[in-house]
Automatic annotation (TrEMBL):
This is Uncharacterized protein. The lineage of its organism: Eukaryota, Viridiplantae, Streptophyta, Embryophyta, Tracheophyta.
Length: 108
């Protein structure tokens, strides 16, 4: 874990910055629901990391010390979205059973 932390600090990234919204739909939805300034800060960190990588450089030591690579900004929103999804599934199931005589697939 320490090596991951040091690698993220070198480029000024957070662990949540590593999630790709193009491959994970739940990440895309969570990013769309976050405040604009949090998403903008994420984009700035990613741009800075790409720039440093292309130049084969790292952040200065004083800035590396200020980084918080495991401070999450996505996990609460993802948990909220999962909670909403569960509520929708429960509501759908209740509605389905109250309006249909045939069972859902995979249930008895």
């Amino acid at each position: 874990m320490k090596t991951l932390s040091s690698r993220l600090r070198r480029y000024g990234l957070r662990y949540d910055d590593l999630y790709d919204p193009y491959y994970e739909v739940d990440i895309k939805v969570a990013l769309n629901r976050l405040p604009r300034e949090i998403v903008d800060a994420r984009h700035q960190r990613l741009k800075r990391a790409i720039d440093l990588s292309m130049k084969h450089e790292y952040l200065p030591e004083d800035l590396q010390a200020m980084q918080t690579p495991f401070r999450s900004y996505l996990q609460e929103m993802l948990a909220f979205l999962i909670h909403i999804l569960i509520l929708l599934l429960v509501a759908f199931r209740s509605y389905y059973y109250s309006h249909s005589n045939t069972p859902l697939l995979g249930t008895k």
